[in-house]
């Protein structure tokens, strides 16, 4: 199990998190997506999977809360565009 899988399972269900990350990945791979938005998507993913960030993950509740907050912020910022990629299953 990868670090991303373990973390997703701990923060609220791997299926829902995986679906959003898959949509973000398809969005990232689309040649029409600007490089600025691609950089934002990569930064959010890296922040989510890296064990050391502003609030370390070993501080369980707060450590995951900052990761989820950032992921929610990025998802919301890109949500209009990501809707298309979420329905492409």
UniProtKB/TrEMBL annotation:
Membrane topology type: Multi-pass membrane protein
GO-annotated cellular components: endomembrane system
Locations listed in the record: Endomembrane system
Ranges of residues in domain DUF1232: 38-73
Regions that span the bilayer: 35-52
Predominant cellular place of this UniProt entry's protein: membrane
Keywords linked to the UniProt accession: Membrane, Transmembrane, Transmembrane helix
Keyword Membrane listed: yes
InterPro entries reported for this sequence: DUF1232
Protein's name in the database: Uncharacterized membrane protein YkvA (DUF1232 family)
Naturally occurring in which organism (per UniProt): Desmospora activa DSM 45169
């Amino acid at each position: 199990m990868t670090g991303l899988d373990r973390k997703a399972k701990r923060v609220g269900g791997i299926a829902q998190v995986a679906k959003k990350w898959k949509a973000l990945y398809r969005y990232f791979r689309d040649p029409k997506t600007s490089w600025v938005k691609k950089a934002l998507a990569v930064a959010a993913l890296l922040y989510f999977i890296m064990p050391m960030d502003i609030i370390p993950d070993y501080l369980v509740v707060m450590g995951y809360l900052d990761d989820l907050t950032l992921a929610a912020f990025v998802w919301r910022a890109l949500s209009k565009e990501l809707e298309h990629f979420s329905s492409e299953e």
